[in-house]
């Protein structure tokens, strides 16, 4: 049997027996791939593609109608704006001036970023503590966090609004504490699942090197938790940015408005609505979170799988 030379240059031919083995390997790989494919894979691809298009259509309609005159939106909602229907950016300018969009945008940005940072920091530490400290207290804490995920918001919203008002949490900084309470359930659940997969020997080695628990957490555990941190950040940010009910109950709306609350002020008396400005503001409201999701989506599956099914 002949052998290939120790080093091959680009364009060199393999010996015939080696080339035969390579071809057989390719055939086996192609056969195994085709064998694994479902006979209905193409059908499922078509069905899921159609469903995806159906979900995207409402977003496209909002964008298209944001460039129409108010009178034509209800009359011809599915038409492309041309001629008299097209108003350019007039709806965007009117909407921004009417609702004070930039002030509301800043409030939403402060609340979203602040809440996500606090949730990541507190819940990751809590999940690590629950995983490493096996006591009755830590077990109860874990199951309370999991139980909070299934409690309907309507059951606690009256008590919540009264408590938040008593503690003077009706501002962008105070509502961060409220979001921490509501976002902790999912975050702790995911962090606990991922923390179970971290070898405890790594933490023991850090402690032998002189790290205290805080140093061990921030220098060793936190970097390993990065995939789950990113996934939790994405999920929590999408929820907090789009949330309407909780800020409407907690915030002092005479001073502070988030983007979803500000958009509702485009409704006038007797049910009249400036549809053009509302469509334009909806576009501005969804663009930041779509951009954030587009740049971060690749981390979602890895983090969710790592945090939800291990342990």
Give the gist of this structure.
The protein is mainly α and 311 residues long.
Oligomer: single chain
Average pLDDT number: 81
Kindly give the count of domains. Answer: 3
What is the helix/strand order? HHHHHHHHHHHHHHH
Question: What would you say the CATH architecture of the largest domain is?
Answer: Orthogonal Bundle
Structural class: mainly alpha
Count of helical segments? Answer: 15
Overall morphology: flat
Let me know the largest β-sheet: none
The fourth-level CATH homologous superfamily of the largest domain is MetI-like
In the CATH hierarchy, the third-tier topology of the largest domain is known as: MetI-like fold
What's the number of extended β-strand segments? 0
Query: In whole angstroms, how far apart are the ends?
Result: 50 Å
Identify the CATH class of the largest domain. Answer: Mainly Alpha
Helix content: over 70%
- How large a portion of the residues is in β-strands, by DSSP E? under 5%
Quickly list its features.
311 residues; mainly alpha; MetI-like fold; 71% helix
Characterize the structure shown:
- The longest helix is centred in the middle third of the chain and has 32 residues, at 101-132.
- 71% of the residues lie in helices and 0% in strands.
- It is mostly helical.
- Helix 2 packs across helix 14, helix 5 (101-132) runs parallel beside helix 8 and helix 5 (101-132) runs antiparallel to helix 11.
- The chain folds into three domains: 1-37; 48-88, no CATH class; 94-308, MetI-like (MetI-like fold, Orthogonal Bundle), CATH 1.10.3720.
């Amino acid at each position: 049997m002949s052998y290939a030379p120790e080093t091959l240059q680009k364009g060199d031919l393999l010996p015939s027996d080696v080339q035969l083995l390579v071809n057989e390997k390719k055939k086996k790989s192609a056969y195994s791939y085709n064998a694994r494919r479902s006979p209905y894979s193409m059908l499922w691809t078509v069905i899921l593609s159609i469903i995806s298009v159906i979900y995207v259509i409402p977003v496209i309609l909002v964008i298209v109608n944001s460039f129409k005159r108010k009178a034509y939106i209800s009359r011809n909602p599915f038409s492309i704006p041309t001629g008299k229907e097209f108003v350019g950016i007039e709806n965007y300018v009117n909407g921004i001036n009417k609702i004070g969009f930039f002030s509301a945008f800043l409030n939403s940005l402060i609340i979203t970023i602040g809440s996500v940072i606090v949730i990541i920091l507190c819940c990751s530490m809590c999940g690590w503590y629950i995983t490493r400290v096996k006591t009755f207290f830590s077990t109860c804490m874990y199951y309370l966090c999991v139980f909070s995920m299934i409690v309907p918001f309507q059951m606690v919203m009256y008590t919540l609004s009264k408590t938040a008002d008593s503690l003077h949490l009706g501002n962008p900084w105070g509502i961060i504490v409220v979001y921490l309470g509501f976002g902790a359930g999912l975050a702790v659940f995911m962090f606990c699942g991922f923390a179970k997969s971290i070898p405890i020997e790594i933490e023991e080695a850090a402690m032998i090197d002189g790290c205290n628990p805080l140093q061990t957490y921030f220098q060793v555990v936190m970097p390993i938790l990065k995939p789950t941190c990113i996934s939790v950040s994405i999920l929590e940010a999408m929820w907090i940015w789009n949330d309407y009910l909780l800020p409407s109950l907690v915030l002092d709306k005479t001073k502070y408005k988030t983007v979803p609350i500000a958009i509702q002020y485009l409704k006038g008396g007797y049910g009249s609505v400036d549809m053009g400005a509302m469509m334009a503001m909806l576009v501005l409201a969804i663009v930041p979170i779509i951009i954030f999701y587009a740049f971060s989506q690749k981390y979602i599956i890895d983090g969710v799988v790592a945090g939800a099914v291990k342990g």
